[in-house]
Amino acid sequence: MNAYDATKRIYAISDELTILSKELGAAVKETNRNLIEKQINILENEFFNIKHKLEKINLSAGSL
């Protein structure tokens, strides 16, 4: 995954997390809440994994 695709995925994850947080707030049943929380955890892990990989990218000023 290149930096551009990684950045696009981070924005997509952010949108997905927004939707899931609204669903979590509206969830009444404990089983539904647990399922949504698991989905949120998976997305958060992916987000931080991508973020960590992007932080490792070092572009020199001359490469742009």
Uncertain regions: pLDDT < 50 for 5+ in a row?
Answer: none
Average pLDDT, rounded to a whole number, is 90
Gap between N and C termini: 19 Å
Give the tally of structural domains: 1
Query: What share of residues are in beta strands?
Result: under 5%
Output the radius of gyration.
Answer: 16 Å
Q: Largest sheet, if any?
A: none
Count helical runs. Answer: 2
Beta-strand segment tally: 0
General description of the model:
- With 64 residues, the chain is mainly alpha-helical.
- The protein has one domain (3-56).
- The chain is 80% helix and 0% strand.
- The protein has helices spanning 3-26, 30-56.
- Helix 1 packs antiparallel against helix 2 (30-56).
Give a brief rundown of this model.
This protein is mostly helical.
What is the secondary structure topology, with strand pairs?
Elements: H1 3-26, H2 30-56
Helix pairs in contact: 1-2
Q: Which features would summarize this protein structure in a list?
A:
single chain; about 60 residues; mainly alpha; 2 helices; about 0% strand; elongated
